Amino acid sequence: MSTRSIFPNLNEVQHVAVIGTGLIGAGWVAQFLLYGLKTSVWDPAPDFEDRLMGQLQDVFSRLHVDQDHQARCLNALNFAENLEAAAASAQFIQENGPENLQVKRGILEELARAVPPDVVIASSASGLPMSELQQGCLHPERLVIGHPFNPVYMIPLVEIVAGSLTGAETVTWVEGFYRSLGKAPVVCDRENVGFIANRLQEALFREALHMVKAGDATVGQIDDVVRYGLGVRWAFMGPFLSYHLAGGKEGLSGFFERFGETIGEPYSRLQAPELSQELIDSVLDQGELAFGGQSIEDAEQWRDDCLSQILALSNREGGMYRVQRQQPGEQVCCTKPPSDGISDNGC
User: Fold this and answer.
1) Is the CB of residue 86 less than 8 Å from the CB of residue 80?
2) 112, pLDDT greater than 60
3) Regarding predicted confidence, which is higher, 1 or 194?
4) What is the rounded distance in angstroms from the CA atom of residue 97 to the CA atom of residue 94?
5) What are the 3-hydroxyacyl-CoA dehydrogenase C-terminal domain coordinates in residue numbering (predicted)?
6) Claim: this prediction has a pTM higher than 0.70
7) For residue 151, cis peptide bond before it (omega within 30 degrees of 0)
8) Closest Cα to residue 77, out of 57, 97, 62?
């Protein structure tokens, strides 16, 4: 006979808290609000309310969210006076403090004291180990890493990483919770520094820096090679499936048979180059030329428009379907994301 979970049923979660409203925290706020969740927020910065409202308006504009939907989102937003007030009555908490072990640990300790043990506390930490973050926290078994990718409200991936004291039930619950928000969570088997995605993208970036430093390629050339070549494939399949299809009828085994020796070729300079001022200046100068002087705001709009179209084309698997939440208390249903990335339709 199975025992009842101490955590709330997923369809009963209507109130969440977001601690820290920088780039990632604001993205989580937008994600939760767009899915109809009451969202309490707090940040130690004195002007965080105005800054967050500006960030949300930018998101709504880029996603072409209509006025009625915007009004419902903002009605569900609650600015708290302190951390304890934000966490009060929340059924889930997403922490987004600075990427500093002592600072994050202090925030998590305070949160753990403020909420009952049936509230999962997830940290957006991008590389800090949860095993160190949860030390000294009350009920550390409900603390877990939930590492998203920018922009949070569009990129489906969330890496879930347990600490040594994290309970298996916590991992299962938070995986289901993120899926209910249209996310595509990946549960990491090991608590490695950098998890999975950052290790991959930093390896590529290190190679790119070596190429720029050596004069082998420019910033613009490297970006074009990725977006017109590698990135087109990577939008819907990873490197292993790509090589599986490059191996002929034998798949990956055929690839290793034909091209395995090239893996040992000295193509890569995996050790990071010295980040000298000369290299930084070279990257910045070439970047300005490659990016055409486009403002950050215009680039973010272009990025989100492109992501909307990619996600609309790629939603063939369950993890790529958005789960559409209606008003609090109403039914949760799945819908395909339309071309603009936001649906306000009922079930």
Assistant:
1) yes
2) yes
3) 194
4) 10
5) 194-269
6) yes
7) yes
8) 57
